[in-house]
Amino acid sequence: MRLRWLGGAGFTVKTGDLTIGIDLYLSNACMREDGSFKRLVPPPVTPESLTLDYLIASHEHGDHFDIGSMHSFIRGDNVTRLICSSNTAIEARRLNVDTARIIELNRGGALDFDGFSLRAVMADHGEDSPDAIGFFINANGNTIYFTGDTCFRTDFMECIGPHEPIDALLVPINGRFGNPDGRDAAYFAQMLKPKVTIPCHFWLFAEHGGDPGQFLECCAAIAPDTKAMVLSIGEEIEL
């Protein structure tokens, strides 16, 4: 299984012949008229260059469900299918995404596909996104847990339910908009005990914030048994 960070909260997962996108944001659709929420760095790839079998969107916010790229991700010359919770599916239909390509997956749901399985769990992203999900991806003997946008909660283990050992934990560190900062991300790693913890959701916008240095320091002190790994945008690793 190969994991690549494409900036923000976006990743691709390659396992066998499958390519899965997670919360990809490759446009500049979030930028407002006053210049806020402008991309700070260009995307490492174009959406047209990706051929995805599945695209997972954890919730409907624009830097996770990229309205500027959706019709480039899901287009006539590919078979990409969108996996998302109900609120995001509503947004997809408003964009005229082919309904036959939309697979709804809500908290507590699980799906088995040819080559991987997926289980959706709670992500506490507040009232603005009440059905936001995190999820476990199991493929080729590896397990990735993508927390999605969520605050740190001491009862998190109860909320997500029992789980198998985690090979890679993908967790935000921007510390704003209800998300964990580097210290809270280290507490996630302490609770979940993944082999590798990879931070995301930082430095995409000036308004996001996030300190990967703090994350590394806190993991060393709080969760020394995990391998804390900060990826470069576009970097790919093998699990």
Write a brief caption for the model:
The protein is an alpha/beta fold. The protein has 5 helices and 14 strands.
Give the domain tally. 1
Strand pairing plus helix content: what structural class? alpha/beta
CATH topology-level name? Metallo-beta-lactamase, Chain A
Largest sheet: 7 strands, mixed
Q: What shape does the CA trace take?
A: globular
End-to-end distance: 6 Å
State the helicity in percent bands: 10-25%
Total DSSP E strands: 14
CATH architecture: 4-Layer Sandwich
Q: Quote the beta fraction.
A: 25-35%
Uncertain segments are none
Number of helical regions: 5
Provide the fold topology.
Blueprint: E1 2-5, E2 11-15, E3 18-22, E4 54-57, H1 70-73, E5 81-84, H2 86-94, E6 102-104, E7 110-113, E8 116-122, E9 133-139, E10 142-146, H3 156-160, E11 168-172, H4 182-192, E12 196-200, H5 212-222, E13 227-228, E14 236-238
Parallel strand pairs: 3-4, 4-5, 5-6, 10-11, 11-12, 12-13
Antiparallel strand pairs: 1-2, 1-14, 2-3, 7-8, 8-9, 9-10
